[in-house]
Amino acid sequence: MPELTWLAWALLGVAAAIVGLSKTAVPGAGTVAVAIFAAVLPARQSTGTILLLLIVADVFAVLAYRRHANWAALLRLAPAVVVGIVLGVLFLAVADDAWVKRVIAVILLSVIALTLLRRRMSRSVADAGSHRIAAATYGTLGGFTTMVANAAGPVMSMYFLAARFSVKEFLGTAAWFFALVNLSKLPFSIGLGLITVPGLLLDLALVPLVVGGALFGRWVADRIDQVLFERLVIVFTIVGAVYLLL
């Protein structure tokens, strides 16, 4: 088990609860958890450690929203996501932590700006051409950011918001997307040495908080207003992106 101060344990505990909450109620909040892990643990170790917690939370998200997924959207995203993951693996092989954080932050802020501009202009990914372009763009960015820093939540949240999904459809599509993507990342993470024995022990201690956050999020999702839901997604996305940039 890693030797950490009580403050570090407290921060990791909060982050673990946020991981669960983000999967079942507030997508985008997970970026805050990623930032906390990166601040408390060595960058490479934090990536592998939080990945396993994300997979645990994915199980609860899929069980809760498995019937609400938009499979047409997921199939459109699949080819671009694979390309993004491969690019992420290549990037991790040559880039240092500072480059990773800044590149992802710039991408996230750019995506937020583009999405808000599209919505202000009353446009969405409603026609076939827009679907293909949006899926290729967001899918590649999502695959890249999830591989290098587990930070695809904000990117894909912007895509699902642009597609005007309802709360349940949003959460169901996101649940299946991240469950499949995170499982596909395991071999790469193991090969890159991101998953370690100390990280596994740390995960065992934090799993109960992930479960608690996921169950609380399920309760919140049944009561949250659509407009408030969308605003929370955008706010958490911006907070996470700014933290990474600084």
Description:
The protein is built from ten helices and no strands. With 246 residues, it is mainly α. It has one domain. The protein starts with 5 loop residues before the first helix and ends with a helix.
Question: Which shape, going by the Cα principal axes?
Answer: globular
Q: Element order, helices and strands?
A: HHHHHHHHHH
Unreliable stretches covering 5 or more consecutive residues: none
Helix content: over 70%
Counted beta strands: 0
What keyword list fits this structure?
246 residues, mainly alpha, 83% helix, globular, cell membrane
Give a brief description.
This protein is mostly helical. It is 83% helix and 0% strand.
List the helices and strands and how they pair.
Blueprint: H1 6-24, H2 30-40, H3 43-65, H4 71-94, H5 97-120, H6 128-149, H7 152-162, H8 167-191, H9 197-221, H10 226-245
